[in-house]
């Protein structure tokens, strides 16, 4: 009895730690993520800073950037977003899909 209680309580603790390990959650409407922890906010802020830095390095803030600068900027933003999503999806509570506002109802049915 004591051993069973130990393993059950250990499983409950590991489940709560796993649940607190999420950084993002799917948006309520549409497709995308929103941060739910300080790590998620920090990752989002870091992505935003990298996108702004990429715009600066590709002369995007000039009066008229060349078409090569624009294409380099678009390529770098695409690569940054792909890397961000590859890192963020495993840290997302829920599945990445198009949502119509039923996130809580789906989670309650799964519990």
Any overview of this molecule?
The structure is a single chain. The chain is mainly alpha-helical. The protein has a domain at 37-91. 61% of the residues lie in helices and 9% in strands. It is elongated, with a radius of gyration of 20 Å. Residues 5-16 and 105-111 have low confidence and may be disordered.
- Mean pLDDT figure: 78
Question: What is the radius of gyration?
Answer: 20 Å
Instruction: Summarize the amount of helix as a percent range.
Output: 55-70%
- Low-confidence blocks of residues: 5-16, 105-111
Structural class: mainly alpha
Form type:
elongated
> How far apart are the termini?
26 Å
Beta content comes to 5-15%
Largest sheet strand order: 1-3
Summarize, please.
The chain has 111 residues and is mainly alpha-helical. The protein has helices spanning 2-19, 38-57, 67-88, 103-110, and strands spanning 24-26, 29-30, 33-35, 99-100.
SSE layout and pairings?
Elements: H1 2-19, E1 24-26, E2 29-30, E3 33-35, H2 38-57, H3 67-88, E4 99-100, H4 103-110
Antiparallel strand pairs: 1-3, 2-4
Helix pairs in contact: 2-3
Question: Key terms for this structure?
Answer:
two-stranded antiparallel sheet; two-stranded antiparallel ribbon; 4 helices; mainly alpha
């Amino acid at each position: 009895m004591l051993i069973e209680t130990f393993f059950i309580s250990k499983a409950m603790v590991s489940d709560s730690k796993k649940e607190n390990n999420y950084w993002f959650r799917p948006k309520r409407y549409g497709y995308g993520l929103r941060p739910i922890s300080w790590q998620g906010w920090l990752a989002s802020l870091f992505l935003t800073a990298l996108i702004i830095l990429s715009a600066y390095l590709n002369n995007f803030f000039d009066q008229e950037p060349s078409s090569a600068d624009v294409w380099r900027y678009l390529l770098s933003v695409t690569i940054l977003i792909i890397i961000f999503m590859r890192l963020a999806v495993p840290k997302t509570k829920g599945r990445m899909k198009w949502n119509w506002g039923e996130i809580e109802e789906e989670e309650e049915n799964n519990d």
